[in-house]
Write a structure and sequence with these properties.
Blueprint lengths: L2 H28 L8 H4 L11 H12 L3 H9 L4 H28 L6 H9 L1 H32 L4 H19 L6 H19 L8 H6 L11 H22 L6 H26 L17 H8 L7 H9 L10 H25 L5 H7 L3 H20 L9 H34 L8 H16 L11 H4 L1 H25 L5 H25 L9 H31 L7
Helix pairs in contact: 1-5, 1-15, 3-12, 3-15, 3-18, 4-15, 4-17, 5-14, 5-15, 5-21, 5-22, 6-7, 6-21, 7-11, 7-18, 7-19, 7-21, 7-23, 8-9, 8-12, 9-12, 11-18, 11-19, 12-17, 12-18, 13-22, 14-21, 15-17, 17-18, 18-19, 21-22, 21-23, 22-23
Amino acid sequence: MSGIWLALAGFLIFFLGYRFYSKFIAEKIYRLDPAYVTPAHKYKDGVDFVPTNKYVLWGHHFTSIAGAAPILGPAIAVYWGWLPALVWVVLGTVFAAGVHDSGTLFMSVRNKGQSVGTLANKLIGQRAKILFLFIILLLVLMVNAVFAWVIANLFISNPSAVLSVFIQIPLAIWIGYHVYKRSGSMLLPSLIVLIVMYGTAVIASYVEPLQIDLVRYFGGEGATTFIGLNATSAAFFVWIIILMIYVYFASTLPVWKLLQPRDYINSHQLVIGLVILYVGLFITSPEVTAPMTNPQATDTPWFPILFITIACGAISGFHGLVSSGTTSKQLNNERDVRFVGYLGAIGEGLLALIAIIAVVTFFGSSNDFLATYNSFGTAGDVGLGVFVDGAAALATGVGIPATVAPTIIAVIIVSFAATTLDSSVRLMRYIISELGVEYKLPSITKKHVATSIAVVSSAALALIPQGPNGFGSGGYLLWPLFGTSNQLLAGISLLLLAIFLRRRGSSMLPALIPMVFLMIMTLYAMFIQVFTDWAPWASNTDWLLFTFGAIVFVFALWIVITAFSVISSERKNNKFKDVA
């Protein structure tokens, strides 16, 4: 069977979902009001609250949520076969992610641009808010560490992508000043930047990259550096430090100076990348060689682990943090909630869909696929690399040389991961500041203090010297916990949305149904992982994952019980409290 059929099935369901279901949600459930004064106008400060054109904002939102996760998750989940991954990505996007992303955006807009963590206080109480903020803090900490690892890994394996990625930074700052200080257009300059980036990628693909002998530089002729690193781990160490220095400045600058223009550039890059891959798919028409379901996948059950392996690309709690943390502060008109929130989720679904297709059509035969994806652990190790190779094969279908294609794919992935990292560190700064207010610690509410805490803790976690790669592998080791924590956050956010809709007199079912499914799957998966796989009494104890996982699990249960107690009490007393 040709991979084209998988793409067409996904296209049809995504189109119907946006055309009909998102319209129903926007008009009948949210009842969006174009006359409502959004926080971007009400609290305009030129730093975080900035009214933004919906296309520019969609670019910021889309690229902030579309990092490496919607690629890596599906590239691992095809271990169980392409059918379970495809069904969860397509249906999860339409009925769960679209509602979640647009709903958290709408909720925040109607509540002064506050984050879902802060809204928990208003909806289900002070104690739930504190617990929720701690879950969010752990999640963004993991996002920072994981994405730093992914970027460093791609830089090391694809050094020709480095210059293209970093040349974007000064050009994005120039665009920010051009647009907001001189009232210029953002479209043409961003397209010029893309031409420069891809031109640099082409040149770099044919030029021997500059190499620095870190071992010799730091440790003379020995096999290790002066701090005991081998060449590979030294490279990880250096790249993660560079990335953390960059995100410190990126997350403290006003959004219009770097975040918005860079994300707008990357939104075009993502659209172009998706067009290249899908056009390449239709031209080359590769055969699906991976099995529909994998009968040999017996070491890890797909039910319920599939639903935490694919988070971004189906539904992701991190999207709610972006929607309520940065996007809601830039929304120009409330009617843009549907375009920015729901269509942003559809865009991420398209990225996850092509990730699945690129992997399952890459291998020459089913036996080749099964030989590579011979265990769930192996799938985690090879997934991203297989996607890069598979996507490069699709890109050659539109005439891109085989030498250049891997560099361009790496540039696209790194660019998205970097924008997510930017937004995540900024979100972590917000959360640390909120906790500082809550616990009366005024020093950590200051922007640079909170950012320093975020950056240092993220770097420390990413640099945990475990695993085969030494320094830089700590973030990667947290990936299993990222999936469960992320999905719990999405479920709790949907639960908050359901309460919010009930208090506004709207039906809570569009949020409640996916919430129940997601919470059951995620709590079940998390219980298996935390108390069976990682526990002190397990054969492969992992104290780091067990400790973090147990905390998040208990906190999530506490929040869910509190929320349903609130719903039950209000239903019993027939009490409706309009929060917006």
